[in-house]
Amino acid sequence: MDRLTVPLGIPLPWRDRAGRLSGLKLAVFLACVAPALYLAAAYRLDALGAKPITALIHATGEWAVRFLLFSLAISPLRRIADWGKVLVVRRMLGVTVMAYAVAHLTLYAVDQNLILTKVASEIALRLYLTIGFVALIGLIALGLTSTDAAIRNLGPNWHRLHRLVYTITVLALVHYFLQSKIDVSDPVFSAGLFLLLMGWRAMRRFKWPERPWSLLLLAILSSLATAALEAAWYGLASGVPASLVLAANLDFSGPIRPAWWVLATGLLMPAIALLRGARTAGTTASPAPGRQRAGEARGTTGRAAASEPLSPPA
């Protein structure tokens, strides 16, 4: 039996392509299944309130959005932290998004007593369900084409197909907003993180400098956009004056508003960039003894030896 597979031929998600245990993949796998295990235990212990199925529907949908954002954060993390190994978990995160989204719809069908005609009619007649269903179909398409065989068979079309993840994320967020109705703090936070991640991609697209100061500016702008989005949503959906919603961001006597959480998350980007710069400077300033002796033997200076690239281009 191949050491990559179990008896049924299913690849073990915590092993790398060589069949070795990957600590990173194992940690991410456990993080992916932890919410499902928690929700299953809470349901078993009757800890989900008077409407447990409704609570499960909301929770699985929220986790699908969270893992979707986690998957979109892989590229920034790889670039800013110079951590190429993190790419190995992107597929796992994508499949996890699909699994939670499918569970989200399945639980909705259970809530409708598995009357599929009623489920279909509700999806067709309620706009937010229609939007969510379209997003689910997209996620299933991406999940089913995430295999190595699909990548080979689709060729360049694979990249075109998987760029739909941005459109799917927008649809998922709109669905999240519409089903939340009154309190949209969580959807606003998720949308703010999406703006932050897309802002980073815009920087890459237009070749703007990725420096700690520019990443700090990105975090601030994303936070301000989040506050504006929250004010606009409440103004349009419930008629609350935008000035009151914006003023709430400066009132710290109550819950911290989503814009501040987006700012706190965004500040991780320049912080990681600074740490990477300090680590690189320290490495180049203090070459390993073996390298330094080799440089001296060749008649080179310590500065010349330190100028060697520390890692291949990203």
SSE blueprint:
Elements: H1 23-44, H2 52-72, H3 74-81, H4 90-111, H5 116-125, H6 127-144, H7 148-154, H8 156-162, H9 165-180, H10 185-205, H11 212-238, H12 242-248, H13 258-266, H14 268-285, H15 289-297, H16 302-306
Helix pairs in contact: 1-2, 1-4, 2-4, 2-9, 2-10, 3-14, 4-6, 5-6, 6-9, 9-10, 10-11, 10-13, 11-12, 11-13, 11-14
Description:
With 314 residues, the chain is an all-alpha fold. The chain folds into 2 domains: 1-179, no CATH class; 181-279, no CATH class. It contains 16 helices and no strands. It is globular and about 65 Å long. The model is unreliable at 1-8 and 291-314 (pLDDT under 50).
Features:
314 residues, mainly alpha, globular, disordered N terminus, disordered C terminus
Note the overall shape.
globular
Helix content: over 70%
Rg is 23 Å
Poorly predicted residue ranges: 1-8, 291-314
The portion of residues forming beta strands comes to under 5%
Number of domains: 2
Quick structural overview:
With 314 residues, the chain is mostly helical. It has 16 helices and no strands.
